[in-house]
Amino acid sequence: MSIELLSDRICLITGSSRGIGLGVARVFAENGASVILHGRDENVLRQSLAELSEPQKQSYITADINTPEGAGVLARAFLRLHEKLDVLIHSAGILGPPMIPLAEYPAESWKDVLHLNLTAPFLVTQALLPALRKGDHPSVIFVSSGVGYKGRAGWGAYSVSKFGVEGLNQVWADELEAEGIRVNAVNPGGTRTQMRAAAYPQEDPTTLPTPEDIAPVFVWLARADTAVSGQSLEARDWVGRDPAI
Ligand SMILES: NC(=O)c1ccc[n+]([C@@H]2O[C@H](COP(=O)([O-])OP(=O)(O)OC[C@H]3O[C@@H](n4cnc5c(N)ncnc54)[C@H](OP(=O)(O)O)[C@@H]3O)[C@@H](O)[C@H]2O)c1
Questions:
Q1: pTM (two decimals)
Q2: Atom of ligand 1 nearest to the CA of 40
Q3: Angle at CA 237, nearest 5°, toward 164 and 150?
Q4: Tell me: the pLDDT tens digits for 204-240?
Q5: Has 158 been annotated as catalytic?
Q6: Would 144 disulfide with which of 70, 148, 184, 231, CB 3.0-4.6 Å?
Q7: What torsion do the CA atoms of 48, 25, 35, 232 make, to the nearest 10 degrees?
Q8: Catalytic-labelled residue, pool 105, 149, 158, 200
């Protein structure tokens, strides 16, 4: 992309040490953004950061957000780097045990999946609200899933958590509209990542779009001049589209 659509926008992407979060971070950095990567492993984050354009402009935060205090740790670390936040993307997520019927679903896994996929995005948004309020046309993006609109056998807590994310998106969007903070959700669709490979071990990953392929809708939502809020968008509809238009 030749025009820098996200010039100097400060963008925190949870779960961006790899997968969709990292792919979106790469495209954001190419578009002039200041990206803050996030994950749990400092070594992995350091390597991921080195892959971004203008690495001196980028940073990372380590925080396990699947703990009651994790959101606060992440928010405090962010505030040590920047006082305002323009774009917050919630990409951290876990699948949980794949293809286990609810009748046998382990309660501990239920708690973990619901916390990381649903409670953490709520707590992280809440903790970073003061920084978002100082942002320039701020944009919050939740990462949903097709099983967040239509339940499917074997998808257990993951599916339920993504139904919750759709609700969280709508409530935050309605509450923050008057303040000019836009809130939307994106369903990536099947994307070439570790999580997808764990869910579909028999699938040939080369048949799937890469995280960079599905990034255009994220770029469009992150732009300061995009106006939509309260929507749930399909990343697949945007593959190959120019987010400048
Ligand atoms: N891939 C798909 O086909 C697909 C389809 C629909 C929706 N999604 C959604 O897209 C999002 C990204 O998925 P992905 O496929 O990119 O998954 P992924 O490759 O497994 O990446 C998950 C990311 O979450 C981070 N993470 C996991 N546990 C964490 C914790 N406790 N604290 C902080 N960070 C944590 C991981 O970082 P560390 O492990 O380094 O900490 C990693 O950066 C998820 O919300 C997923 O539900 C994916």
A1: 0.98
A2: 41
A3: 30
A4: 999 999 999 999 999 999 999 999 999 999 999 999 9
A5: yes
A6: 148
A7: -140
A8: 158
